[in-house]
Amino acid sequence: MTSLFHPTRRTVLLGGAAAASTALTVGASRLIVPAQAKSVAPTPSMRGGANNYRPGAPVVERIGGGGFLMRGTVLRAGDGAPLAGRRIQIWAHTTEGHERDPHSHGATLTDENGEFRMDMPQIVPAFGQPHGHLAYDAEHDGGGFKTVFLRPVMRSADETTLAANFVLQPA
Amino acid sequence: MSQRASIRAALVWAALGVVIAVPLAIAATSPLIAWRQPVYIVAGFAGVVAMALLLLQPLLAGGALPGLPSPRGRRLHGWVGGALVAAVVVHVAGLWLTSPPDVIDALLFASPTPFSAWGVIAMWALFAAALLAALGWRLRIRPRVWRLAHTGLVALAVAGSVVHALLIEGTMGTVSKALLCGAVVLVFVKTVADLRTWTLLRRRRP
């Protein structure tokens, strides 16, 4: 079999140099794009995020006795605009109950800045990691965005706060 | 038994007792237990027990324990193997009752936690090694192949269990867990070396 393209040492080197300069130019231009052109990518659901979810858990002032802070933001994909009034459900294995207990679940709404805060009992390690669960469920919200489940892990079991941010994709 | 041998025997049993008892005691008194329901506590403890039995197994197979030389040690190896399988079954079943979706994720290798996959790999390797032992001569395979397969599966079970345990934030203390895991690996490697299992890999001369 004959080939129409016979790479020599020179063509390989030239090709490599061309590819490298293209990559550099593209890379550099990405660093200097104007701010308004940025596109905020949607948050994908995390593995295991939906485990022990309870659809429609009520909106509460706080979960149990509180003492631990779960917080985060909810933004719109694309322009990154904050989303107010979005319903976020939070649950975890805490000092007051395990993940499947109804009283370990509670929902809250985002404020005008797209921020949410939930006072809840201290999260303790369960199934090998100190972690929380958060859900944005399209079926229990005004709709308009796709469902996302998050499962953030605490860096240490001693921490008393955990953050999780949503970027929602319009449905 | 000479005096020197009996002192050595006492030291071996004492060291083994400490390496096994300390992690068990720490797990039994862990603060995490206060926030767990009984099924979850039993499930976690069964995992610690399984790791302790995993330490005993090579010692029994190799007849290395004082007072338990090969024929007696081997017989006990079979019984402890059965207990080890039972401990792993209790571990997984208890976790399943505690949180079904997390265990289903682990068994399907879809878990967010890498230690789950290591645990499941170790479990299947252990079950296969135990099945091989239970069937024994009924399998009608050459003893050499049987022993290589059993040892190979156990190597996978040991490696998987140790990585599984070390990555988990659970009831065992970090130091005692590392010591127990280190002992499990050391005893397994030493036994394979003493029994010269690897020589079975070489082709026999005609």
The biggest sheet of chain A, with number of strands, parallel, antiparallel or mixed sense and barrel status, is: 4 strands, mixed
How large is the count of helical segments of chain B?
A: 7
**Pattern of helices and strands of chain B:** HHHHHHH
Query: Which spans of chain A of ≥5 residues are poorly predicted at pLDDT below 50?
Result: 33-37
Name of the CATH first level of the domain at 68-168 in chain A: Mainly Beta
Number of helices of chain A: 1
Interface with most residues: A-B, 23 and 22 residues
Q: What is the 3D shape of chain B? A: globular
Shape of chain A: globular
Q: Report the portion of residues of chain A in β strands.
A: 15-25%
Distance between the ends of chain B: 43 Å
Overall mean pLDDT of chain B stands at: 93
Gyration radius of chain A, rounded: 23 Å
The CATH superfamily name of the domain at 68-168 in chain A is Aromatic compound dioxygenase
Can you describe this structure?
The complex is a heterodimer of chains A (171) and B (206). Chain A is 13% helix and 23% strand. Chain A is an alpha/beta fold and 171 residues long. Chain A has a domain at 68-168: Protocatechuate 3,4-Dioxygenase, subunit A (Sandwich). The radius of gyration of chain A is 23 Å and the shape is globular. The termini of chain A are far apart. Mean pLDDT of chain A is 86; it is low at 33-37. Chain B has one domain. In chain B, 75% of the residues lie in helices and 0% in strands. Chain B has helices at residues 3-28, 38-61, 70-98, 100-107, 114-135, 143-167, 174-194. The N and C termini of chain B lie far apart (43 Å). At the A-B interface, loops of A face helix 4 of B.
